[in-house]
Hints:
Elements: H1 2-7, H2 24-34, H3 50-67
Amino acid sequence: MIHLIKAVNLPLTLKDLGMEKFVEEEWRKVAADACAEGDTMGNMPFPVSPDDVYQAIVTANAIAEKYHD
Length: 69
C-alpha cells in the first residue's frame, strides 16, 4: 500500500497531512470519536476500542515514517 501511496503522490505520514506537532490528547479524541456509538467502527467483526484506534494511528504513522523519502 505504501508503494501505491508514493506512486500516486498522496500524503504518507501525519506530517504530510500538515500535522507538524503530534498532540496525544487530540489523537485520543479522534480515536474516541471514531468509536462513537453509531459510527462505522461498529461494523468491524470484532470489538475496537478507542485505544486500539489510537495505537493503530501511532503505529501506521511510525511505519510510514520509515518509508518516507
